[in-house]
């Protein structure tokens, strides 16, 4: 079967966009082929700095014929309806339509038309221009007099199609003056001339001969392997950086790994700062010694895009000059941060305390609706002190760490290298003699910042990290700045996942609903986010309705007066408490969604999380996960699956009866009405299993709770096999329904089984 080769050759594509662009190209083209009835065998996309390429194998030479069916009016319908149907279906007369009978709707007309397939090359010729013109670049531009928008100027397009045994055809089309062809170009400097290609194997081999490695993952492997070998030859070890490796592989088409150096005197600067400046400014890797201390080495790895005639001497020298200049700046910032601030050293304050005092004096705003950075620090301090006992931390140390946690934001180093915030605060805290736990907490309080980042483990660090993330979530929830769709400008999803990971990794038992309402109320009362906002909304609505300005002024004064009136404080506080509770519940639901994401990534079933949360009052992440794990293990076995089936049968019967009578089935089972052996056995089993399961849940032995419920499996099966629930005798029927209600209640001691899928 024929194969498709497509290449879009342009100026340099930003490294951060390449991998997604390649995937977008693959998906757009293959989706278009499938929609046209061309089911292919395989597809793979590639990206280099100057090209996107796509190989699609096993594409049929022609799409299949299709039969389109159009349903028309009923037989005997008015003439106008028939004529409208004929026109829409393209029929000359009603005799060309078929009559189809339907048991419910009677006979009606159907037009069936055969639509012949198309040659695949024609489908591709229509599809590619459409994909290129609508390509989803994050940023694009027009150039010259053309109308095409592309990330960088597009120079040429290769598009060939044909079987392996024949010369492929050029798929003919034109986009903004660029005609498709079979000519590409090699490395910009080492092989810039035109290259005529046929199919993918030929294309890939000729590009490699022209110093272009098409596969980004292969470029990454070459860089990593050569960098490790070069470091090892010098008795050093490469500090691996996946993000930087991905970026550098997107900057070169022919990677050449070189080693540069800088003066040892710069190693007095913290290693994290050295790494940050070399990484951010020169896209270079840093090295460390193999010794126990693994100190940073005064060497760095750079990746060139050219084989230099002098073996890279000039390239490494040029990079070394820039690195030394940047490290000189970093050293200056590092030394400046350790001096007294003018006007603050005389107060007898330590360096970080000086930065904090300056932050308060400047009134730096955190968010216009949430106040200053200093106000936020005060909230985090209170919350960290409150959380400390729950995580086994000293409240005073937690409060001290929270007080200083943001002070490094005003340091020179963090101002230049924002990525080392927190880390530098911990370093400065250690230098000024703070308790080691305080220094660790300052360094770790932003963690974890992603799925691969480590989680704080020291109790003080846990308290401050939780306080920082919870304050962020609570604050933006209070002002209704929640994530919407894919937009999450304040990274609230990451903050929630951070809280979850901290709690789970450390086994911290923190009831979230107990921790959140007070901070919510604090923010809303302090910022007047309850009554005032609502009153202003009313006033604004009246203004838009055309109320005269003089009346509006008087109305605004009246609406705002209760806030300043001492007599209104009590009712205002009550409204704040109610609002804080509602927002806490909403934020808890957000945590539940994030927890489902976390568990799904670990292979757990998200419906089991729903089943646990549906019980209400579930706000302890550790307890929820333990219950979900036990429930998952139980349902994986035969007893669990059969009990779930029995539960569903019981609940379906109950729902039907409760809907009929518009009342829930409740009440105790009358033992005197249990005439049959199977219902007696079920009642006895529930009498034993229900309290045993509830007691096991109370002591959080969820495995024991599942074991207790498993005893219901056999009597439930026997009951439904032998007993007619809807008996003719109303009293007997009600008694049996109450027995089903007891099955439901016993299962709900563990989870709401109605939320379980499958």
Automatic annotation (TrEMBL):
One of its GO terms (molecular function) is glycine-tRNA ligase activity. GO terms for cellular component: cytosol. It catalyses: tRNA(Gly) + glycine + ATP = glycyl-tRNA(Gly) + AMP + diphosphate. It holds the Pfam family tRNA_synt_2f. It comes from the Bacteria. Residues 645-745 form the DALR anticodon binding domain. It is found in: Cytoplasm. Keywords: Aminoacyl-tRNA synthetase, ATP-binding, Cytoplasm, Ligase, Nucleotide-binding, Protein biosynthesis. Its EC number is 6.1.1.14. Belongs to the class-II aminoacyl-tRNA synthetase family. Tetramer of two alpha and two beta subunits. This is Glycine--tRNA ligase beta subunit. It comes from Prosthecodimorpha staleyi. The lineage of its organism: Bacteria, Pseudomonadati, Pseudomonadota, Alphaproteobacteria, Hyphomicrobiales.
């Amino acid at each position: 079967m024929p194969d498709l080769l497509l290449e879009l050759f342009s100026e340099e594509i930003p490294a951060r966009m390449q991998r997604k662009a390649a995937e977008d190209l693959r998906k757009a083209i293959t989706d278009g082929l499938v929609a046209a009835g061309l089911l292919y065998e395989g597809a793979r996309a590639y990206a280099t700095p100057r090209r996107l390429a796509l190989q699609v194998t096993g594409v049929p030479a022609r799409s299949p014929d299709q039969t389109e069916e159009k349903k028309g009016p009923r037989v005997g319908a008015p003439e106008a309806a028939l004529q409208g149907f004929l026109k829409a279906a393209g029929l000359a007369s009603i005799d060309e339509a078929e009559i189809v009978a339907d048991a419910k709707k009677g006979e009606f007309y159907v037009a069936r038309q055969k639509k012949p397939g198309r040659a695949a090359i024609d489908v591709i010729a229509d599809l590619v221009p459409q994909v290129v013109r609508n390509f989803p670049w994050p940023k694009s531009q027009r150039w010259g007099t053309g109308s095409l928008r592309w990330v960088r100027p597009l120079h040429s397009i290769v598009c060939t199609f044909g079987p392996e045994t024949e010369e492929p055809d050029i798929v003919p089309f034109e986009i903004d003056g660029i005609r498709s062809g079979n000519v590409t170009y090699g490395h910009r400097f080492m092989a810039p001339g035109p290259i005529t290609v046929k199919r993918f194997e030929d294309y890939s081999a000729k590009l490699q001969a022209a110093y272009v490695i098409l596969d980004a993952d292969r470029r990454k492997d070459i860089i990593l392997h050569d960098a490790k070998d070069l470091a090892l030859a010098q008795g050093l070890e490469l500090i691996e950086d996946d993000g930087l490796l991905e970026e550098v592989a997107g900057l070169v088409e022919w990677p050449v790994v070189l080693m540069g150096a800088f003066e040892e005197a710069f190693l007095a600067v913290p290693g994290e700062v050295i790494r940050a400046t070399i990484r951010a400014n020169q896209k270079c890797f840093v090295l460390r010694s193999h010794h126990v201390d693994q100190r940073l080495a005064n060497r760095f790895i750079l990746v060139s895009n050219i084989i230099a005639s002098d073996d890279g001497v000039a390239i490494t020298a040029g990079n070394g000059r820039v690195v030394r200049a940047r490290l000189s700046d970093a050293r200056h910032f590092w030394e400046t941060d350790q001096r007294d601030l003018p006007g603050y050293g005389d107060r007898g304050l330590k360096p970080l305390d000086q930065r904090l005092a300056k932050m308060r004096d400047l009134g730096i705003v955190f968010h216009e609706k949430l106040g200053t950075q200093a106000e936020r620090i005060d909230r985090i301090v209170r919350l960290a002190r409150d959380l400390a006992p729950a995580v086994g931390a000293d409240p005073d140390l937690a409060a001290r760490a929270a007080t200083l946690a943001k002070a490094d934001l005003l340091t020179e180093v963090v101002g230049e290298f924002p990525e080392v915030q927190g880390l530098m605060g911990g370093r400065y805290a250690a230098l000024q003699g703070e308790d080691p736990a305080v220094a660790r907490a300052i360094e770790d309080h932003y963690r974890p910042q992603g799925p691969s980042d480590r989680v704080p483990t020291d109790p003080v660090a846990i308290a401050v990290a939780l306080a920082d993330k919870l304050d962020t979530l609570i604050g933006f929830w209070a002002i209704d700045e929640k994530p919407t769709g894919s937009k999450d400008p304040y990274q609230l999803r990451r903050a929630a996942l951070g809280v979850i990971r901290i709690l789970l990794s450390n086994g911290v038992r923190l009831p979230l609903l107990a921790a959140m309402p007070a901070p919510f109320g604090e923010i809303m009362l302090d910022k007047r986010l309850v009554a005032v906002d609502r009153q202003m909304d009313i006033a604004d609505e009246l203004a838009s309705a055309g109320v005269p300005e003089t009346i509006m002024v008087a109305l605004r004064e009246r609406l705002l007066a209760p806030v300043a009136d001492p007599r209104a404080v009590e009712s205002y506080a009550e409204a704040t408490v109610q609002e804080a509770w509602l927002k806490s519940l909403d934020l808890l639901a957000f945590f539940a969604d994030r927890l489902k994401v976390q568990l799904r990534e670990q292979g757990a079933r998200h419906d089991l999380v729903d089943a646990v949360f549906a019980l209400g009052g579930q706000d302890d992440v550790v307890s929820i996960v333990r219950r979900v794990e036990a429930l998952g293990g139980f349902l994986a076995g035969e007893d669990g699956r059969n009990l779930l089936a029995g539960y569903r049968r019981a609940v379906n019967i109950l729902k039907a009866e409760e809907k009929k009578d518009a009342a829930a089935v409740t009440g105790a089972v009358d033992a005197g009405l249990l005439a049959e052996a199977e219902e007696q056995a079920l009642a006895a089993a529930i009498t034993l299993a229900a309290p045993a399961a509830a007691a096991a849940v109370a002591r959080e032995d969820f495995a024991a709770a599942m074991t207790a419920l498993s005893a219901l499996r056999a009597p439930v099966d026997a009951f439904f096999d032998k007993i007619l629930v809807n008996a003719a005798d109303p009293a007997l029927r009600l008694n049996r329904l109450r027995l089903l209600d007891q099955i439901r209640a016993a299962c709900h001691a563990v989870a709401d089984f109605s939320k379980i899928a499958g």
